[in-house]
Amino acid sequence: MGSNSTSTAESYCNATHLTFQYSLYATTYIFIFIPGLLANSAALWVLCRFISKKNKAIIFMINLSVADLAHVLSLPLRIYYYINRHWPFQKALCLICFYLKYLNMYASICFLACISLQRCLFLLKPFKARNWKRRYDVAISAVIWVIVGTACLPFPILRSAGLANNSESCFADLGYKQMDTVDMVTMVTVAELAGFVIPVIIIACCTWKTTISLKQPPIAFQGISERKKALRMVFMCAAVFIICFTPYHINFIFYTMAKESIITSCPIVKSTLYFHPFCLCLASICCLLDPILYYFMASEFRDQLSRHSSSVTRSRLMSKESGSSMVS
């Protein structure tokens, strides 16, 4: 597999023309853009401005919202390309948008794992939760951004080969650089372990521990309602993870091997390549599911949002009444 995006296995199996992916990507991103922009902007504003209680994974939610918003803001360029199949902008802009996709995916995975882990630990260790400092979450978030930001750099680097041959191509039409077998195996192993296996183990353990805690007698500072809130939060994190990221990481191994012509079985090659666009679209849907996590699972978010909505409504009604009194 050289700089061309077509591998030997793809050509042999006649699986090189996935024309449906353009309409699939365009439709999915159009569906996500407006709701995702409004929901994540509102969530980020409310989380940052109106929530003073920061000890229930709120810092991680803020970072999760930032990751989603960064990807959502790049969607108009993706929509333009998949509709017109032409990239008139700078090459660097193409690679930045491509990079933001994977940055959003793996940052979301890390912050979902952090939300689950913190909610579970605070539930099981309420006395330690009271002494937990907000700066700890800020430091953890900064480390996550540095690690994930660095780890995602190979994605645009490996796909930048296509721009050298065709500057009008971008995203799904980008080529691949030739990879050594050892480097390829190392990259896939690290991506699967750090980006999928370890987070799914963390979320699964947190879900199990939180479920078990409901059967135990209540302890200080903690009622059954608090445990149910924590369980709903962890369950929602698990649902977002399974729906959005599990299909991609299961398919990712086979997709890489198909691109490298390690897998030559045509049924596997075709099914893997055809399934890949659907996996990427599912990963982008997290931008819509995460705001649901904030609203339905965080009572502070819900309370503050309802209070702000009520105050806005009251102020509008008062302004209308004062205006009508002046006219009369």
UniProtKB/TrEMBL annotation:
Residues 39-294 form the G-protein coupled receptors family 1 profile domain. Keywords: Cell membrane, Disulfide bond, G-protein coupled receptor, Glycoprotein, Membrane, Receptor, Transducer, Transmembrane, Transmembrane helix. It comes from the Eukaryota. One of its GO terms (biological process) is phospholipase C-activating G protein-coupled receptor signaling pathway. The keyword Membrane applies. GO terms for molecular function: G protein-coupled receptor activity. The chain crosses the membrane at residues 28-48, 60-83, 103-124, 136-157, 193-212, 233-254, 274-297. Putative receptor for purines coupled to G-proteins. This is Putative P2Y purinoceptor 10. It comes from Mesocricetus auratus (Golden hamster). The lineage of its organism: Eukaryota, Metazoa, Chordata, Craniata, Vertebrata. The gene is P2ry10.
